Amino acid sequence: MESPARPAPAPAALLYYVAFSQLLGLAVVAMTGTWLGVYRGGIAWESALQFNVHPLCMIIGLVFLQGDALLVYRVFRNEAKRTTKILHGLLHVFAFVIALVGLVAVFDYHRKEGYADLYSLHSWCGILVFVLFFVQWLVGFSFFLFPGASFSLRSRYRPQHVFLGGAIFLLSVGTALLGLKEALLFELGTKYSKFEPEGVLANVLGLLLAAFGAVVLYILTRADWKRPLQAEEQALSMDFKTLTEGDSPSSQ
């Protein structure tokens, strides 16, 4: 009796790039906390510091956790597909909840201080990202986790789902960079051009944000690093091809 085939190991370069992405992501979160703690007074809900909840939550939720959710299918290459799907979906849920806290914080702060809402490019992009993220999660849950969706429907929608996931992530990184620049201009004004320590730290934070987005995107676009099909996935794919093209497995 033949022994079952051993799972193919992950490419060594993939592991290094994933580790590098995590170092960058954690550095982004840590530097965001440092910026808010050292130069913006810290974080609190019932005070003028409530605004600072917004950038920290958005960085953790819509940048770091969303990026990690996209990498799930590269990291967990040999686990059961359903387990990987659940982890992918849960990370997006955590990201959504944290981002929702950040969104409530900024709107509540603006209301208390009498500031206008949704007038800047950053705010427009932010709302667009949040809505797209939520819709993407709902549609993804309906197609890939809800038991009623057919295999053919999932197969046809999967390319759009993958593309939109990457696009929303990149838009999230870009929106975070816009918000960082906006915060610096509001706080520092003309002093920004004088290499103030806060401005220098925030510029480094921006470079780390861009680097994290670039590394995650690179990992996702390497075709040879995609999750290999498991035995049950290959069987389903063959059945689908048989039904749609009229081929039989024996004729391949």
Automatic annotation (TrEMBL):
Entry annotated with the keyword Transport: yes
Required co-factors: heme b
Occurrences of domain Cytochrome b561 (ranges): 20-221
Membrane protein topology class: Multi-pass membrane protein
Cellular localisation: Cytoplasmic vesicle, Secretory vesicle, Chromaffin granule membrane
Annotated signal sequence range: none
Main location: membrane
Classification via InterPro entries: CYB561/CYBRD1-like, Cyt_b561/ferric_Rdtase_TM
Keywords, ordered alphabetically: Cytoplasmic vesicle, Electron transport, Heme, Iron, Membrane, Metal-binding, Translocase, Transmembrane, Transmembrane helix, Transport
Pfam families with a match to the protein in the record: Cytochrom_B561
Transmembrane segments: 12-33, 53-74, 86-107, 127-149, 161-180, 200-220
Domain of life of the source: Eukaryota
Catalytic activity reported: monodehydro-L-ascorbate radical(out) + L-ascorbate(in) = monodehydro-L-ascorbate radical(in) + L-ascorbate(out)
PANTHER family: CYTOCHROME B561-RELATED, TRANSMEMBRANE ASCORBATE-DEPENDENT REDUCTASE CYB561
Function: Transmembrane reductase that uses ascorbate as an electron donor in the cytoplasm and transfers electrons across membranes to reduce monodehydro-L-ascorbate radical in the lumen of secretory vesicles. It is therefore involved the regeneration and homeostasis within secretory vesicles of ascorbate which in turn provides reducing equivalents needed to support the activity of intravesicular enzymes.
This protein's name: Transmembrane ascorbate-dependent reductase CYB561
Taxonomic path: Eukaryota, Metazoa, Chordata, Craniata, Vertebrata
